[in-house]
Design goal:
Helix content is 34%, strand content 19%. The protein is an alpha+beta fold and 108 residues long. It has a single domain, classed as Ribosomal Protein S5, domain 2, CATH 3.30.230. Strand 1 and strand 2 form a beta hairpin. It is globular, with a radius of gyration of 13 Å.
Length: 108
């Protein structure tokens, strides 16, 4: 399974639509916002936000890579046509297994 370019949320206008979404799925280390992106035939799209409060650049990039990999490997479990935004909180750990377990628990 690949993570296609069309599955990445990159436009500022797409991020602006997430600002209006109040409902989110929250845990201690991150929260996920889900938004219906239109046509259900399209694949789910994904974005990660990690602020500078979380750590240095190396740590933030590692977290982004971990979340992209979690999304890539579990995209078949996500609802097609939805956009997902993951926002990391300060104090997040960078252990792959723990983050994957929490992410899968949250999206179900």
């Amino acid at each position: 399974m690949r993570l296609l370019k069309s599955q990445k949320i990159r436009k500022n206008s797409d991020f602006e639509t997430f600002r209006s979404v109040r409902a989110c799925f929250d845990c201690d280390m991150f929260f996920v916002k889900a938004l219906e992106g239109g046509d259900a035939a399209h694949r789910a799209r994904f974005a990660v936000i990690v602020s500078k409060k979380v750590g240095n650049a190396v740590y933030r990039n590692r977290l982004k890579r971990i979340f992209r990999e979690i999304f890539r490997l579990n995209q078949h479990r996500l609802v097609p046509g939805f956009d997902y935004l993951v926002v990391a909180k300060s104090g997040i750990i960078d252990r792959y297994d723990d983050l994957q377990e929490l992410f899968l628990r949250i999206i179900q």
